[in-house]
Design a protein that fits this description.
The chain is α+β, with helices and mostly antiparallel strands and 214 residues long. It is built from 5 helices and 9 strands, in the order αβββββαβαβαββα.
Length: 214
């Protein structure tokens, strides 16, 4: 019996050692995956909206423009639109909802920014995901006195999912070719001098009375 026990014990020892080595290799691999996924490799620079703002509220600009899904939505008259209808002009695509408190706070500044740039230079596209439909959005616009912004709605909420917008508000900066060049998670004071200058720089927009860069 003793001569039979030795091979069994040796086999068990080999199996235990193998399991131990495998566990170490898995732990190392997981550590490298976590390190890689946490690396901000796609972000070329970030700009804080204020010294008190947390990092998650910064603008992120990508090293290379990204393709944007051809999302579908309607305007205030219920006409079907896609992002392709806004090509050849920079777009500030803001995903929001009437029930979102930060959205209510930032919307007037988006309205003022649209008025400052004018529709000829820049389109601010506030895309509501309200399930109550256009009446709820129209009421919201009336309450805040928004007059320069267009009104757009994706009642299904599919656009937010396709754009990987986790929560609201989320804002995408889309260039003249319809590609995303940057993103802002959380609200902003859109008509502040710092953000207006940032938008002009990244979209090549003119100062008042000057020629815009192509």
């Amino acid at each position: 019996m003793k001569t039979l026990d030795r091979p069994i014990r040796r086999k068990r020892a080999v199996l235990i050692a193998g399991a131990f080595v495998t566990a170490i290799l898995v732990a190392v691999a997981l550590d490298r995956v976590i390190e890689f996924t946490s690396r901000p490799s796609v972000v070329s620079n970030t700009v804080q909206t204020g010294t008190a703002s947390p990092p998650s509220f910064a603008f992120s600009f990508f090293d290379q423009p990204r393709a944007v899904p051809e999302i579908r939505f309607v305007d205030r008259e219920g006409r079907a639109l896609t992002l392709a209808d806004f090509r050849a002009q920079p777009v500030i695509l803001n995903i929001w909802a009437t029930w979102c408190v930060p959205c209510r706070k930032e919307m007037p500044s988006l309205d003022r920014m649209q008025a400052e740039f004018g529709a000829a230079q820049l389109t601010v596209l506030p895309l509501s995901i309200d399930r109550q439909g256009l009446p709820a959005v129209k009421k919201f616009y009336d309450e805040l006195g928004l007059s320069s912004l267009g009104m757009y709605l994706d009642q299904s909420g599919a656009a937010a999912s396709e754009l990987n917008a986790v929560g609201v508000p989320v804002t995408l900066l889309i260039d003249r070719e319809g590609r995303e060049i940057g993103r802002k998670v959380g609200p902003a004071e859109w008509d502040s001098p710092e953000i207006v200058a940032l938008i002009r720089e990244h979209f090549g927009l003119a100062m008042n009375g000057q020629q815009a860069r192509p």
